[in-house]
Design brief:
Shape of chain B: globular
Radius of gyration of chain B: 19 Å
Shape of chain A: globular
Helix content of chain B: over 70%
Structural class of chain A: mainly alpha
Low-confidence stretches of chain B: none
Strand content of chain B: under 5%
Number of domains of chain A: 1
Number of strands of chain B: 2
Low-confidence stretches of chain A: 306-325
Order of helices and strands of chain A: HHHHHHEEEHHHHEHHHHH
Oligomer: heterodimer
Largest sheet of chain B: 2 strands, antiparallel
Distance between the termini of chain A: 8 Å
CATH class of chain A: Mainly Alpha
Number of helices of chain A: 15
Mean pLDDT of chain B: 88
Strand order of the largest sheet of chain B: 1-2
Structural class of chain B: mainly alpha
Number of strands of chain A: 4
Largest interface: A-B, 41 and 44 residues
Chain lengths: 325, 289
């Protein structure tokens, strides 16, 4: 129990110190992508659904937050929340259709719907600015406190992202999350136990998409700029690699993965723009030899099972929801 | 009316590319249970192969049409042996992610070498100009693309339906365990079938080279449209992939006559409708994923 509290304290301390350790804009990027990855893992790790189209919801959140902040003058945090609402509204019809299939078909379908969102964003110039994107999105102020300095914005975004993360973790550990785990392990059996599987899946996907939209909103206010790459499938791929690298179905894995990928991208950008080769290589390496990810492997070591043994498709239920110990 | 006919013709051409690509995907998926995300990148490699053979070695388009797909097949064969084969016993999603990573790396590598702009490539002299059919003129090269890809699709269908090799492939696609139990070494057929599937992508790339800008990302968005076509046709259905490719090509082109922005998105709307009304796809069987 004491180590548990110490773990939470350490996490909070790292979170509060982050903008003094690294460039504050990068620190907010880690927050936003960390939330995005954690929201994504509700589906991948917890429910066993690989969505290859989450950029659509992250990007929709970013565009929606940018539009309401710029055109309607909505203040923080409500502009970011508007991003979450927009993403949820988009997710409801698209995911209701996508969850009619599972496994590899679900991945293809979400990918295809995200590509549709990409084309729509490209064509709807009056709203999204087409290829030019939306620039000059203001951060505004909270309680008379200007968010223009990057550090100020970090501390404004921190509680919002923390709430989002707590929600993600709470969902996984709740009775609702237990049913999602059961669906992951055996969908047919869960159905025959009397759970309305499709309804559970729909709620899980819409929640995940809404939190992804919130992450997109936090992210767009950080940069003041959003363009088509936010809804492109490469963004969907980035969040997948974050979760895999950190370890899916672990509490901290998505955060660790997001932080590593963002730091690595920042580090590499000093020498090369070959980010695709770097991401691709991480993908290949993680998939071939490191399928449990960093946190998954560490948890395995702590639990004494040891070693990067051949990973199962997903860790057992107990491990998935154990988190900090 | 002429405009509509011309659009329908152009739609058939697009459909020919969709058909070649989704045919390769379907063959690979059937045999390996791998959804090959690299397919678009290998299509791009096929086009660059044609460019390099012509620009660097001075070979004609006709040589490129043979050599480049073979080179892509060799690349695919190597990648399958080095990377893909370790994951066949796991959830197929792992191989999707692996090929996604490979596609990112291949595309970015080509971008570093050739830049984003891409390179020019012209149709062979025998196929330049236009042919008059009835009252309309059609570009000769496009007529060739249409005829050639239909021939390739028919040829593939013939191999799969009428030859012994095809029989093994169909058996291994439908009942892999039973096929093994009957003494057929299914694993032996996996590399050549994968190489053949990606050769189709390389072939589509060569055919596209004179028509479309040869650039590192030419296959990046095309592959996703092709995925949607595979969903519409039904996963793993070879006939479905070809027919749906042509249908979607024509439908998108005709839709664009009335409302231009729909050219890119119609395929996804069709996919949504199919999911709503017939989730297993137009030609799919109910048990597939």
């Amino acid at each position: 129990m004491r180590s548990r509290a110490a773990g939470w304290g350490l996490l909070l301390a790292v979170g509060l110190a982050l903008p003094w350790l690294i460039y504050p804009v990068l620190a907010v990027d880690i927050l936003a992508w960390g939330l995005f990855a954690a929201a994504f893992d509700i589906l991948l790790g917890c429910t066993g659904l690989l969505s290859f189209g989450h950029a659509a919801f992250f990007g929709t959140g970013a565009y929606a937050a940018a539009v309401v902040a710029l055109r309607l003058g909505v203040a923080f945090p409500w502009d970011a929340v508007a991003g979450a609402v927009a993403a949820a509204l988009l997710a409801l019809p698209l995911m209701a259709l996508s969850i009619r299939r599972t496994g590899i078909s679900f991945a293809m379908i979400t990918l295809a719907f995200a590509q549709m969102v990409f084309y729509v964003a490209n064509a709807w110039r009056s709203l999204t600015g087409g290829e030019n994107g939306i620039t000059g999105v203001p951060r505004g102020e909270v309680l008379g406190w200007s968010l223009s300095p990057a550090v100020a914005y970090y501390y404004a975004a921190f509680p919002l992202v923390a709430l989002g993360l707590l929600l993600c973790w709470r969902i996984v550990r709740s009775p609702f999350g237990r049913v999602l785990l059961a669906i992951r392990e055996n969908e047919v059996r869960t159905q025959s136990l009397g759970y309305p599987v499709s309804r559970y899946k729909l709620i899980a996907t819409v929640l995940s998409c809404a939190l992804s939209g919130l992450a997109g909103g936090v992210w767009v206010l950080n940069h003041g700029f959003v363009a088509l790459d936010a809804v492109h499938w490469t963004t969907s791929g980035t969040v997948v690699v974050m979760v895999l690298l950190g370890g899916m179905a672990t509490r901290l894995g998505p955060l660790v993965g997001a932080a590593l990928v963002m730091l690595l991208r920042d580090f590499l950008s000093r020498w090369t723009d070959a980010w695709g080769i770097a991401t691709g290589t991480i993908f290949i390496a993680v998939i071939l030899v490191f399928r449990q990810g960093i946190v998954g492997t560490l948890e395995g070591l702590v639990a004494g099972r040891g070693g990067p043994a051949a990973a199962p498709a997903a860790p057992p239920v107990e491990e998935a929801a154990s988190g900090l110990r | 009316m002429e405009n509509v006919l011309l659009q329908a013709f152009n739609g058939l051409i697009n459909g020919a590319f969709y058909a070649l690509l989704s045919l390769g995907l379907a063959v690979i998926f059937g045999m390996l249970r791998v959804l090959n995300f690299m397919h678009g990148a290998l299509y791009m490699l096929g086009a660059f192969g044609a460019y390099l053979l012509t620009a660097e070695l001075g070979l004609s388009f006709w040589w490129a049409l043979v050599v480049s797909p073979l080179a892509v097949a060799a690349v695919g064969f190597l990648l399958e042996r080095v990377f893909l084969r370790w994951l066949y016993d796991l959830d197929p999603l792992y191989n999707l992610l692996l090929t996604f990573g490979l596609a990112l790396a291949i595309q970015d590598g080509m971008r570093l070498r050739f830049g984003m702009q891409g390179v020019p490539y012209s149709a062979p002299p025998q196929l330049q100009g236009a042919l008059q059919i009835g009252v309309m003129f059609f570009p000769t090269y496009r007529l060739f693309v249409l005829a050639f890809s239909v021939l390739v699709c028919l040829g593939t269908w013939w191999v799969i339906e009428r030859t012994r090799v095809g029989m093994v492939i169909r058996a291994a696609t439908e009942k892999p365990m039973l096929t093994r139990a009957l003494g057929i070494d299914v694993d032996r057929w996996i590399p050549p079938v994968f190489a053949f599937g990606v050769a189709l992508a390389g072939l589509a790339g060569v055919l596209a080279a004179p028509m479309r800008n040869v650039s590192p990302l030419m296959g990046a968005d095309l592959i996703i449209t092709t995925f949607a076509i595979v969903v519409i046709g039904g996963m793993g259905s070879i006939l479905g992939s070809v027919v749906t490719g042509f249908i979607v090509g024509v439908a998108a082109a005709l839709g664009a006559v009335y409302y231009p922005p729909i050219a890119n998105t119609l395929v996804f709307i069709l996919m949504a409708l199919v999911l709503l009304l017939r989730p297993q796809g137009l030609f799919g069987s109910a048990e597939a994923g």
